[in-house]
Amino acid sequence: MSPASLPQVLRRARAQLEELIGRPAEGVVSAIRDEDGWQLIMEVTELARVPDSTSIVGSYEVRVDRDGELLEYSRTGRYARNQSGEDEQ
Predict the structure, then answer these.
(1) DSSP structure string for 42-88
(2) Is 1 among the domain residues?
(3) How many separate domains does the chain show?
């Protein structure tokens, strides 16, 4: 059996992360394939505020196998949606 396609992996990983943290994942920022599977970075709204630009977003690193089964995850950062998340100089 061939490994799952990237869209299949993303759907599975997203559903599993949402089930574990209890919040919807908004999108995938990064998807890198390695010999064991995929390393993904997903963004999740952790605290919705009005206006939406002030909502708090969490960035999660998610590792999944070749079929999209979640192996591990961790939150790597939090920021207000209106911040770029990058150091500005």
Answers:
(1) EEEEEE--SSGGG-EEEEEEEEEETT--EEEEEEEEEEETTS-SS--
(2) no
(3) 1
